[in-house]
Write a structure and sequence with these properties.
By secondary structure, the chain is mainly alpha-helical. The chain is 69% helix and 1% strand. The protein contains 14 helices and 2 strands. α3 crosses α8 and α12 runs parallel beside α14. The protein is globular, with a radius of gyration of 21 Å. This is NnrS family protein. InterPro entries: NnrS. It holds the Pfam family NnrS.
């Protein structure tokens, strides 16, 4: 079976009817279609890889505990963990989202076929390079690792450039994300752990900016649609001025936390950004969505941003132990939960399924919430010793994302239920 590229005039996952016409056959009658469906659209391989890697990377990290400073695939385990969760796990989720969202934003054809396969392989090679960091030259690790994000930009860049839209700056975010990955690798090469830590903080800050911008659009939009669809009259209050101020404050915090994470000015910016995020959420009517898990999880995920920022401010200002895990409130809470929330929703919508999650995914939402709460608060408040807290939080995280993989692997690997392409 010849595999056309994504630029072909006919969607490659639609088989030509030998008798004439373009009838879409049942996938049972079309082995070729069934075989290549995993690369029919950008969300399919990358959402699945993000879910699998969320399990694998945390299992490896928990298995290394408590020796977090020992050599771990050629790096201190703490830095390997931070890099792979941000540039590996979150990087895959960002790719899946952008490859799916850009066609919707620009009204152009989606990304599939060989270009998507090549990009997927580039991500996998980057992960394998980090697993072989103790045997491969660092230059080769860097070459493999730094190939992925430029490949993503090459795919989505022309579509964004051809149409005038407000999402073009996302290419600059990708560039900044790639540069921070390069800075991390340079810090590893020069044995400068402070430089590595700065790169990881800066990358996490960029992820918070992305969630602030994109989440600030989709959370109220999805909430309004769901409430109105249930016959609940509501008005989403999301003033543009408040949105711009919140984004600006989050960008300022992202810069400050990368450069000087313990400075008092950083605490002030974090507190201001937390307040703006909190006010912003008040207008989104989240309390009305308690009977809609696929919606309330978006609100819960976004809520970890003001929580994490407030914890950061308190940690700097007072040094109290219970505020010290602000990084995990943002990384595991805001990013980890938002990724699960968006993947479970987008995969349903883009495969022709109703926007309603089953009981197992609701359990996954709850397990992930508990994982973050344990990681952020259990040891710092004296509820658990540090090592048991790490293992419990890691186990809950693995359970949550393991459920996602179990439930969504068929959704992501098999054709759409409505037999449409993509």
């Amino acid at each position: 079976m010849r595999w056309p590229t994504w630029r072909s005039s006919t969607p490659w996952c639609i088989a030509r009817n030998p008798a004439g016409g373009n009838r879409r056959p049942h996938h049972e009658d079309d082995p070729g279609m069934k075989r290549w469906v995993p690369f029919a659209y950008g969300f399919r391989p990358f959402f699945l890889l993000a879910g699998v890697y969320a399990v694998v990377a945390i299992l490896l990290w928990v298995s290394s505990w408590p020796s977090s400073d020992r050599a771990f695939f050629g790096q201190p385990a703490m830095y390997w963990h931070g890099h792979e969760m941000i540039f590996g796990f979150i990087g895959a989720a960002i790719a899946g989202f952008m490859l799916t969202a850009v066609p919707s934003w620009t009204g152009q054809k989606g990304f599939g076929g060989w270009p998507l396969v090549v990009l997927t392989v580039a991500w996998l090679i980057g992960r394998l390079a980090f697993f072989m960091g103790d045997v491969l030259p660092l230059a080769l690790v860097a070459l493999f690792e730094l190939a992925f994000l430029p490949g993503l930009a090459i795919l989505i860049g022309p579509s964004l450039a051809r149409t005038a839209n407000r999402n073009r700056p996302l290419l600059l975010v990708l560039l900044a994300f790639w540069l921070l990955d390069a800075v991390f690798l340079y810090g590893t090469w020069m044995s400068q752990p402070m430089l590595c830590a700065m790169a990881l903080r800066g990358a996490l800050g960029l992820v918070m900016v992305l969630i602030t911008v994109i989440g600030g659009r989709i959370v109220p939009a999805f909430t309004g649609n769901a409430l109105r669809g249930s016959g609940i009259e509501t008005t989403m209050r999301s003033p543009a001025v408040l949105a711009r101020c919140t984004i600006a404050a989050t960008v300022a915090w992202a810069i400050a936390v990368a450069i000087s994470p313990v400075a008092m000015i950083t605490a002030v910016i974090a507190a201001l950004a937390a307040g703006l995020h909190g006010v912003r959420m008040l207008g989104w009517q989240g309390v009305k969505t308690l009977r809609m898990p696929i919606v309330w999880v978006l609100h819960l995920a976004y809520a970890w941003i003001p929580i994490g920022l407030l914890l950061h401010a308190v940690s700097i200002a007072s040094g109290v132990a219970w505020a010290g895990q602000w990084l995990h409130a943002l990384g595991a809470g805001a990013a980890g939960m938002m990724i699960l929330a968006v993947m479970t929703r987008a995969a349903l919508g883009h495969t022709g399924r109703p926007l309603k999650v089953g009981k197992r995914i609701v359990v996954a939402y709850i397990a992930l919430t508990l994982a973050v709460a344990v990681r952020v608060f259990a040891s710092s408040t004296g509820m658990l010793e540090y090592s048991p807290a790490i293992h419990l939080a890691g186990g809950l995280w693995v359970f949550a994302y393991g459920l996602f993989v179990l439930v969504y692997a068929p959704v992501l690997l098999l054709p759409r239920v409505d037999r449409k392409p993509g």
